[in-house]
Amino acid sequence: MSTETAAPTDAAKPSSPPYRRRIADRDGALAWIFLLPSVVYIVALVAVPFVLAIAFAASDVTAGDPSFDFVGLTNFARVLDDPVFWRSLGNTFVFTGISMVLIVVFGKVLANILVADFRGKWIVRFCVLLPWTTPVALSSISWLWLLDSIYSPIDWLLRAVGLLGPGENMYWLGEPGLAMTSVITVHVWRLTPLAAVIMMAGLVAIPRDIEEAARVDGAGYWRRMFEVTVPMVMPVIAVAALFGAIFTFTDMAVVRVLTRGGPNDATQVLSSWAFYRGIEGGDVAQGAAVALFLFPLLLAAAVAILRAVRRIEVR
Amino acid sequence: MAVVEVRDLVKEFDGGKVDRVRAIDGVSLAAEDGEYLVLLGPSGCGKTTLLRTVAGLEQPSSGEVLIDGHDVTGLPPRARKIAMVFQSYALYPHKTVLANIVFPLRAAGMAPAERERKAGWAAGLLGIEHLLGRKPRQLSGGERQRVALARALVRDPHVFLLDEPLSNLDAKLRASARDELKKFQDEIGTTTIYVTHDQVEAMGLGDRIVVLADGRVRQVATPAEIYDHPADTFVATFIGSPPMNLVPRGDTLVGFRPEHLLPAAVLPADAVALSLAVERIEYLSGDRHLYGTVTGVGEPTKVIARLPATVEEPIEAGQTHEFAVHTSKLRFFDEDSGVKCDPVRLGG
């Protein structure tokens, strides 16, 4: 009806065709426009620093003498001879391994709480997500106060219930074993919400029928959990675990704020050691060499994540 | 003895900001031993909620559920001796077919040798022995249905609960799967409650059909009874395709099935004569569907007549023809309540 009246007016103005190819119709150009910001971002903030790190690691650049001289693998040899490096490497694995397991276990429990339907769930969800939304540096400082050698509220609580004598203190960050426990605790505390949210997405994706079929089939809570729910969200759990691992593996903020790697390098990790060596110590070349040891492990983790994601897609 | 019985069942759902929604509004029913009871109704009539309440997946707001004469109202599904086949089949996607079938047996703590024997028996009965090693995603829709049935079967349930098990199959497969379901039930003879919105399934499978609407039972009867003697106008128009014609006459509605409205020439005596102004004719697999306005029984009303292929009277669209309905085929309903009422004398 309306087209019949509109058609003659269009025909009367041949200079402006009714349809023109706009920029939004050109897929090829659009692809480049949309990709460009991320390409620039990745080149500027990932590729360039990475190449720089490799270059520095093969040089004798220091904060005092920034002139570039190629020295080959000397820096790596020096790193491998350094007992602190081996200690940091071991600590990194211990921190990452223990944190990853705890993050997955607590994350699964929290995810179950997040998907549950009950009165006042919004406040619980808010509280669960709070650690993840707080900047690491800020929350680490709060933990620093909680774990203070003299005024620790945790010690105060322990004294109140009689586990600690009057005037006694735990020195959370002073004893090597306790310092490691403290660092792991903070990592788990701040990364569990992320894992919980990832796993919640996995739990929500399980069809309700399957859970109900298991109930009708006579399976109790634990059997449903370990034979139905967990295997079905396994790829998602893998993603959560690997994210937790990567964030723990590369993080130096917690160590830096809480212990500065101490006592006596007991909590030193690769990233903090690279920072102390390269930035604070001024030996840029060696700092870069230490940091490069993170690369193969992160590469392996990234490949593992991509594989887990593909398994989710296949199902 | 009644294997499954529900008494005065009410299930309300929280409707959010609106009032509470009554999904089941005072239903009392009983399924006899070995019976195939079909719950039939349009979507939203409460049939699935009723089935889930029997299964124990929903708790009723009030009323009782009895299985084998025991009150199971508060009991969880696993304590009810039931097995359920879900609309989606709900197979465990990460488990093989065999692991799916033995899952209920492992949950019941059965010994491994006994489990194998039982699973083999169920797989044999359903003809899926060759699929035991596969994962559900490698199966066709029909195969999945059989695995779901096998998983339900191994539990030796006292009642089978089937929730629209055919609705995920394409039309061709549905007919053969319906056949198999019927054979399967004949073989094992277990009481079955079957939910569907498809009247063809209900008519073909059910020993008795429960017609539900708005959470209430409209009629419980055999398929033939439901079709020939509908309890009210809802059942009369819900069952049958095309539905029963209803012609207002005073304060009653006169009902007759489309296939009973025939040319006067082919009907013997004892028929009520009426005339049909034919507007449109459709040919459907040999039958002729006539759409037109009928006069002579009550107010002029749009109706449908279905002439079987055996009736070869020439009928033209745009003409008025003499039609008739046999008096024994007339049904009468109260105009206000829609409920079946006493026959009214028609014509002279």
Q: Which range does the strand content of chain A fall in? A: under 5%
CATH topology of the largest domain in chain B: Rossmann fold
CATH topology of chain A: MetI-like fold
CATH architecture classification name of chain A: Orthogonal Bundle
CATH homologous superfamily of chain A? Answer: MetI-like
What structural category arises from helix and sheet content of chain B? alpha+beta
What would CATH call the architecture of the largest domain in chain B?
A: 3-Layer(aba) Sandwich
The profile of the biggest β sheet of chain A is: none
Find the count of extended strands of chain B (DSSP E, 2+ residues). 18
What Rg of chain A do the Cα atoms give? 27 Å
Describe the protein's architecture and organization.
- By secondary structure, chain A is mostly helical.
- Chain A has one domain (83-314): MetI-like fold (Orthogonal Bundle), CATH 1.10.3720.10.
- Chain A has 14 helices and no strands.
- The longest helix of chain A has 33 residues, at 83-115.
- Residues 1-12 of chain A have low confidence and may be disordered.
- Chain B folds into two domains: 2-228, Rossmann fold (3-Layer(aba) Sandwich); 244-334, Beta Barrel (OB fold (Dihydrolipoamide Acetyltransferase, E2P)).
- Chain B has eight helices and 18 strands.
- The model of chain B has no long low-confidence stretch (mean pLDDT 88).
- Classes of the chains: A mainly alpha (315), B alpha+beta (348).
- At the A-B interface, α9 and α10 of A face β6 and α2 of B.
Keyword list:
heterodimer; A: 315 residues; mainly alpha; MetI-like fold; 14 helices; 73% helix; disordered N terminus; B: 348 residues; alpha+beta; Rossmann fold; OB fold (Dihydrolipoamide Acetyltransferase, E2P); 2 domains; six-stranded mixed β-sheet; five-stranded antiparallel β-sheet; 8 helices; 18 strands; elongated
